[in-house]
Amino acid sequence: MRLGVLDVGSNTVHLLVVDAHRGAHPMPMSSTKATLRLSENMDDAGCITPEGALKLTHAIAEFAGIARTSGCVELMPFATSALREAANSDDVLAQVRAGSGVDLRVLAGVDEARLTFLATRRWYGWSAGRILNLDIGGGSLEMSNGCDEEPEVALSLQLGAGRLTRDWLQEDPPGKRRVAVLRDWLDAELVVPAKQLLAVGRPDRAVGTSKTFRSLARLTGSAPSSAGPRAQRTLTSSGLRQVIAFISRMTAADRAELEGVSSDRSQQLVAGALVAEASMRALSLDTLEICPWALREGLILRKLDTDLGTDPGAGGTRPIGVPGPTEAVSP
């Protein structure tokens, strides 16, 4: 079965086309991206601007066409924090529906955390034991911890790399004082979430997902993307500190020249690195393993589980939107 996953994030719109079959891992067939920086197309009232909504509608219409010509039997379109938090979210969703025929589904932050956790669990398997997962997006940080396919704790915090760049690090490069103040602020923000995560148990395996973690791991010497998804990649706290000292002195244009750093992510890389560092420090983690699967793969896996008639009460495969044992979203 060929599926298309259309991901509308804070920075990009991403279409992933995969072949997915029972008993096999999803096989990527194509990947198409467009940089929209939706989170930057906001007015002072927190509304997505008319120009931003129009760009989004055109991009989704184009990507839906690509999915059709690619032979997708189903398109799974979803949006995350930028649309979730927009004051005019309903109006933008209606405009997208009218202009493209695509009915975007807005995911709750805790559902992002749960689906990403499912993907990491399937990637590493049951032998991994208790997994703690961190995922840094443009608008939010998702954190989860659990022994099964459903995390015992799933958190979504408004600590995304793009958000913190806009709020804290407007200068290019950011000043030393501003970086130090943001470090202290992040430490304070993560005290309670870290206690919640660790209250259910110390992890046997700590995992990082998302482009931010992959880029940081590459900068500390992990294998390039050309080595394939199965190459082992890690991010250490000591390596991360060295990277922060290096990239925080560079302009966004200079950071974009580094291997593993895309031009559309270079501006928010420092903030993302500081979130990663603060999270690892709060959770007393020396090393994170980098998982190639994340939210999109989690959606595909949940789709296959649902189509195969998996009991929603077994193995942690509850329908999205049903509250779990411990879920929280930052105000």
Automatic annotation (TrEMBL):
Q: Which InterPro entries does this entry report, sorted A to Z? A: ATPase_NBD, GppA/Ppx_hydrolase, Ppx_GppA_N
Q: Where is this region: Disordered?
A: 308-331
Keyword terms:
Hydrolase
Q: What is its EC number?
A: 3.6.1.11
Q: Tell me the ranges covered by the Ppx/GppA phosphatase N-terminal domain, including all copies.
A: 17-305
Q: Which reaction does it catalyse?
A: [phosphate](n) + H2O = [phosphate](n-1) + phosphate + H(+)
Please state what class of enzyme this protein is.
hydrolase
Q: Which GO terms describe its molecular function?
A: exopolyphosphatase activity
Top-level taxon: Bacteria
Q: Give the record's family classification.
A: Belongs to the GppA/Ppx family.
Kindly give the PANTHER family that the UniProt entry links to this protein: EXOPOLYPHOSPHATASE, RETROGRADE REGULATION PROTEIN 2
Name-wise, this protein is: Exopolyphosphatase 1
The source organism is: Nocardia vermiculata
What phylogenetic lineage does the species belong to?
Bacteria, Bacillati, Actinomycetota, Actinomycetes, Mycobacteriales
